[in-house]
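re the bet — no i am not wrong, look at it urself. input seq straight from the record:
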Amino acid sequence: MMQSPALDHGAPILEREESVKWRDENTVYIQARKSRCHSVWCACCSKQGWAKVAARDLREFDWKKTREIVVTIDPGRFKNGKEAYAYVMEHKLIPGLIRNIKRGKHVKIGKDWIWKYKPVEICKYITFLEWHKNGFPHWHIIIETAEYGRFSQIGGDMIRHYWPVASWVHESFFKSQKHWDYQVGYFEKHGYFDKDKEHQTSLPAWALEIPGLRIRRSTHSRREQGNANEDQGPGQDLEKAPAIDPLTGEILDPGSITYRYRLDSCGRASFLNLYLRGKEVTGLFKIPYQEVRKNYPGQYRAGIGYVFRVSAQEGDKLLSKMIRGEERRYLKTKWLKDRKIIKHWCGICGDWTYQKIQEARDDSDVYLCLRCKTVHEYKEREQEDWRSIGLSTNLGSS
C-alpha cells in the first residue's frame, strides 16, 4: 500500500508539492448553484427558504388555541389595489386590529359599563399577505390565544368593527392535530393555504414596476422590533446595501431595482466552482442554471449543489462566460486506505467528522473534512490553530 510522504515543514504550506497528486490533469471538476433572487415573492425561491421558515414558526403554535382570521378589502372604497395596500400600511391597520382584539371594547349602558367585545389574550400571531386577481390584498392571520377551544373565539362582529375596510371577514379553527399538520404541511410545500390558489402568491402588476419597493409577505409577533422598518410605511426599502446584477455583474443601487427585474433575473445566471490545473475559480457565470443541468450530465448533492465533470477544453469555454469572480490556488491531497476517523470542528462547513490522513514529524496532524473535502493541519503547540492547506471535491485512492 502506497503511503503519502511526510510533509516538509520547513517550506510554506502551498509549496509542499510532495504531498500533492492529481488524478487527471485534463478533467475539470465543477460545482454549480443557481443564482437565486431570494425574493419571498419568487415562486421558486420562496418555497426553498421563506415557506420553510414560516412553516417552522407555525409548528410552534398550539392548534387547540389557534384561530385563523381572513380579512379582505372592499374594492369599492379604493381606486385600485395599490391605493388599498398603501392605506392599510399607512394607517397600520394590521397592528391596530391585533391591539384592539387584545383590549376589547367597553360601552356604557345607563350607569353600568359592560363588555361589548371581550378582550382576547393573544400569545403570538403570524400574518400572511396574499393577492386577489384584481390586485387587491388580503391577509391570513394565525393567532394563538391563552384559551382552548370555543373560549378562544374572537367573533366576526369584533373583527368587522376593528377592520372597517372589509368586504368580508372570516374566522375559523382547527379540528384536530391532523388537520393542523395537514394545513402547515401544505403551506410548507406550496407557500399558500387554500388549494388552487397559487395565483394569490404572485405580486400584482402595479407592484412589479415600482423601483425600490419592498412588500413584506409575512410578519411574526415575536420578531416585530427587528422588522419594524419593513412592517410600517409605504413599503420602501430602507437598506442601501449594493446589489449585483446577475446578468452583467454590475453594482446596482437597491433603490433602482424593481420586482419585475429581480424576479425575471432569477436563475438566468449560475454560481460555479471550477477546480482545474491546481486552482479554484469561483464566480458568477452568464449561463442559465437549467442550461447547465441540461448540457452537463451530473448529480445533485445536498449541501453542495449540482456536481459534474468536463474536459479542460470545455472548462476554458465556461471560464469565458464568467461575469465576475475570484481565483485561488489549492492542493489535492492523497486519499489513504488506512483511514482513522476523528472528531474536530470545521469552520467552513460546520461538520464535526474528520478523517486523519497522516501524522507529521513535529507533532502536527493532517485531517480531511469528509463533508467539504477541506484539508486542515492541526498543531497542538500552536494552541489548536487550524490552517487550511487545501480544498478538493473528489479525492481518489492512490
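see?? The CA atoms of residues 31 and 307 lie 5 Å apart. told u. also The chain has three domains: 13-20+332-391, 27-35+269-329, 45-231. so pay up
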